[in-house]
Every structure is written in C-alpha cells, then in structure tokens.
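Dear colleagues,

As part of the handover before I leave the project, I'm documenting each prediction I ran so the next person doesn't have to rerun anything. This entry is a single chain, and its sequence is reproduced below.
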Amino acid sequence: MSESSSGVNTSSGSFPKSHSSHYSELSDTHTPLSVEHTPDSGIVATPLPSSRFRFTSWHRLEEHDVRGDQLTCPRVREGPSEDEHSLRDDDIFLRNGRRRRRREDEEQRWEERLQENWENCVELNLSYQDLGDPYQLENFTRILRRLIRVERLQLVDNTLQDLSSVRLPRCKSLNLHRNHLTSFSQLPKVPEIQHLCLSENSISSLGDLSLLQTTSIQSLTLRLNPCEFLEDYRSRVFSCLPKLKVLDGIPKLPEDSVPPKLPASSRLCIIL
C-alpha cells in the first residue's frame, strides 16, 4: 500500500464513520470519537482514526477505510508490485532508460488512488520519507501534485532536488529544511506562500530569488545555505523581496533597507 496508518485528521474535520468488518477483531474497544486518558501525562487524548491498527503487522493492512487526508505523517514510500519486482533483476531498463513495468489492474489502482484522497488535505507532514529508490521518488512527486488544497506542508529531510514540476496553489507555509535544492528555480509553484523555510540546502546564489516577488511571502529562512555568506546578504534579499518581514528568524532591521553595494567592477572609472 502507499502509506502506513499513522497520523491524525487535520483537514476533513471528522473521523471515518465506519470501519472494515474484516478487521473488527483488531479494533480498540472505544469508538473513533471516544476519549482515552493517558496515565503518564494525565492529558485527555482523542484516538487517531488509525489507532485500531497500532498492534497490527503491515502485511495485514491490505484493506482499511482510513483515507490519506486523515493522516498527518503518512509514509508514502510505495514500492513496485510483485510482478514489477520480479523483473527488476532481469529486465530493468528500456531503450530510453526508464523502468519497464507490467500493466497493472487499472480499476484496482484507481480505487487505491481515490482512497488516498490527497486532494482534501489542508495540513500534511511528509518529512523523513527515506526515498531511496527512484520508484519511491516518482510516487512521492505524484502525491505532491495532488495536494491542490494543502496550506501547510512539511517536506523535511527528503533529499529533494527539483520540485519545479509541482504546483501547490493554496500553500501558505512550506518547510523544505535539509534537502538538496541548489536554486530557487527548483522550488514548487507556490503563488500564495507566506512562510518558506529552505535552511540547510545548497543554494549558493540569490539570482532566482526574484521568482518569489509575485508572492506575499512574509518570512524566509535560508540558514546554512552558501548564499548566506554573500556580501550584503540581508540587504540583497530584502531589496529583492520588499514585502518580506522576517529573514532567518530576525525581523527586518533599519540597516537591511540600505541598498546593497554595487560590485567593485561596476564602480571602476574607465579613462580612455
């Protein structure tokens, strides 16, 4: 399956109304809307929609009624089917270098995609996915393209290199901490972005920062990127993004409004 059953509903506002009878023996005694007391902290907690699966082995979760939009931190490292897996050693690449895949049952695949229901996610954490296989990265990108309503998205530490093919039309807060981005042009399309974290990437130039000028970005974090050590770094960022209020966790200071110095070569006086 595409994801594990761990997380909390953050978008739909309700828990599933019914559970699969096939796994009724695995369910907890409480209903999805009941409240349980945690003896260690004394805090009253609402069970997660997937809590009835917490003692179940992964291979027994072939069918369930927990949807993707009811999870906050799902694992989306989908692997190839058994038929595809059997071909990996014998016939992995076609002439154009792409993996050969047997034709799957389209009806079953479509039902699985509908169950994920990523289109209704408003808040989602897809961090630490450990995308070690190109197949997993392809599935991960497929899910990102379906997040048409997400407003807050966490993509921390996923070794992502290029998301320029992804569009997140409603995303206001995006966390891409500790990935492998080297340019602002590799960011997804985020026209509504307000808070963007790009710390611990490999962005060395501010040349493509102008791509964010059409947004309403208010805070930007670029800590531990090579561009942080550029001359007049802060003034150059604020000069390019006039609407920006906070950079690297520090509010805009008076000296940040001073226009950046021109390169030394442009200040030379040439005498003919």
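The first strand starts at residue 36 and ends at 37. The chain is about 15% helix and 10% strand.

All the best with the project,
I.
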